[in-house]
Each structure stands twice: as structure tokens, then as C-alpha cells.
Amino acid sequence: MPELPEVEALAAFLRENAVGKAVARVDVAAISVLKTFDPPITALGGLAVSSTRRHGKFLDIDCDGVHLAIHLARAGWLRWSDSLPQRPPKPGKGPLALRVHLSDGSGFDLTEAGTRKKLAVYVVREITEVPGIARLGVDPLSDEFTVERLHRLLTDAGRAQIKGVLRDQSTIAGIGNAYSDEVLHAAKLSPFHPASTLTDDEVARLHGVIIGELTSALERAEGLAARDLKDSKRSSMRVHGRTGQPCPVCGDVVREVSFADSSLQYCATCQTSGKILADRRMSKLLK
After folding, report:
1. Read out DSSP for 127-159?
2. CB 243 within 8 A of CB 256
3. Within 13 Å and on the Cβ side, how many CA atoms surround 123?
4. For the chain, N or C: smaller number of CB within 10 Å?
5. How many CB atoms lie within 10 A of CB 285?
6. Number of neighbours of residue 1 by Cβ within 10 angstroms
7. What is the pLDDT of residue 225?
8. What are the tens digits of pLDDT across the range 163-182?
9. In whole angstroms, what is the distance from residue 277 CA to residue 197 CA?
10. What is the mean pLDDT of residues 41-47?
11. pLDDT value of position 280
12. Helices then strands (H, E): number in the chain?
């Protein structure tokens, strides 16, 4: 799933390649991707792309005051082309969900792999009309994300597991499954640690790691073409997606906990004092 660093990089890429160009037309290949109807998607035709920015994991393309907001979900992606085919795509064929043509012949496709279609596109006059954006929590790279703010958020979360708190978009906006694994590994915290029981030192360490991990990811993504962002993210992961491989810090094996529709990765030596976390379907720790 594209998270804060990748969506920020996509916004920067479009800022460089799309801003100032007019939208020639939009082809919808999967009607289910559209989550709004007023204004219609055709309202974007003829409008110029004036700015692009990120809200959490949402991409916001401002076209003369009409916003094309995109949430790429787990398997969605934006694929840029300097020369798009002019023939309209056939609906329901392949991973293509939506195609945006720009005035110079360039543009981009929104695609989604797999059978679970969650990619979402909104066309709105005010960006806060998008429900997921309206309820976003603090941005971890903003000035509002202080140690004190994080401490309050963790206290308010009670005994909720820290992994889930980091992924909760209404608490902290932009961190998903991958970067929460990386943050917790770097902060030497168990993903199941109750949020409100962190010490002051642990909260301060977690705060610094969140900012450091996301900033480093942004720096790695800077200047990359959209097509290269996925590989850059994947190659930089220390524990996420690396089940069975050695931890780059201590050499212990990276382990996994599987859930119904996702999984997390961690290092027992670095994060849980050597304890092996059981699959949560068993609801206990292996002693």
C-alpha cells in the first residue's frame, strides 16, 4: 500500500510534470472507482492542474478549484505516460480503473491489481468533502506533531496495541502497515505493546523514529519517477515483507504474525526481548 512517503513523492512528481497543463478528458474504465457524482468526472475537462498535494495517504490534484482526490488503497498505483493512447479503454478489462489525459498528450493511469477493488476517486469542490480526509489525524511531518501531542494520543488510545494506533488514520495520518513495522523495529518496541503504557523515554524515542523513518523515505524517493517508487520502498525495508530473512541489526530471523487480511513483521531480539509473538488468531504469546 502506498503510504505517506510514496504519496508525497507522487504529488511532487505530478507537481513537476502535470501542473500548468489542462485536463483534456478522463476515461473511466471501472465505474466502481468513483465515489462521488457531483460534480461529475467530466467537469474536470478543460480545467488546468493548478497544484498537487498530499493529505495523509490521499493524493489531491487541484484543477482550477475542483479537486480530484485519490486513495490508492492496498493495490492501487499511478502510472505516468508521456504519450497516452487516445483510444478509450474497454471497461472492465485488466487492472486499469481510470485514465487522465492532459493537453499535451501526456497523462496517467490509475490501476489496481487483484480482485479486491478498493481504489477510490473523488471529485469535490472542497477537499474536506472527502470523508477520509475530513477525519484525518495529525500529520507526522507537521509542526503540530510534537512529543507532547504523541504522548496525548497514546494516552487516549488506552491499552490499544501500538501497531494499530500508528496505523489509525484518524490518529496519525499517513502511516500504514509497512512503515509502522519499520518504525516499531527502529524504536525497539513490540507491535502489541499497549499504547498508554509507554514510558516518557519510549514516547520520545518513538516520536524521533517516526519523523526519522518518514523523512529518510522521502529523501530516498526524491526525484524518482513514479514507476520507480515501489521498488525504492521495497528495497529499503528492514523487516516489513522480509519474513525468514536475517534482521539487519542483530541477525535474528525476521518473524511474522498473520491476520485475516494482513500481516506484520518484527524481530524478536530487537523488539520483544526474545519472545516469539503468536499468531493473533491464537490470542496469546508463546512463552
Report:
1. GGGSHHHHT--B-TTSTT--HHHHHHHHHHTTT
2. yes
3. 20
4. C
5. 12
6. 16
7. 86
8. 999 999 999 999 999 999 99
9. 19
10. 97
11. 53
12. 8, 10
Nearest to 25 by CA among 114, 88, 112, 97: 88
Query: If we measure between CA atoms, which residue out of 210, 165, 153, 211 comes closest to residue 192?
Result: 165
| Cβ atoms 2, 110 nearer than 8 A | no
Q: What is the pLDDT of residues 206-220, one digit of tens each?
A: 999 999 999 999 999
Closest CA to 139 of 126, 128, 149: 149
> Residue 164: helix, strand or coil by DSSP?
helix
- On the question of pLDDT at 286 being above 50, the answer is no
* Distance of alpha carbon 140 from alpha carbon 132, whole angstroms: 17
Instruction: State yes or no: pLDDT of 113 exceeds 50.
Output: yes
Q: What is the pTM of this model?
A: 0.93
Residues contacting 174, CB < 8 A, separation 6+: 3, 4, 7, 54, 56, 57, 139, 140, 141, 214
* Rounded distance between C-alpha atoms, residue 196 and residue 53, angstroms: 33
The span from the CA of 210 to the CA of 218, in Å, is: 12
In this structure, what C-alpha cell is assigned to residue 81? 505516460
Q: Which domains does the chain have, with CATH numbers?
A: 4-134 (3.20.190.10), 147-282 (1.10.8.50)
Residue 162 phi/psi, 5-degree rounding, is -60, -35
Q: Closest by alpha carbon to 99, among 117, 82, 119, 79? A: 79
| β strands within the chain, DSSP E | 23-28, 49-55, 58-63, 66-71, 76-81, 96-102, 107-112, 120-124, 254-258, 263-267
Residue from 153, 134, 220, 146 nearest 182 by CA: 220
* DSSP 8-class letter at 259: -
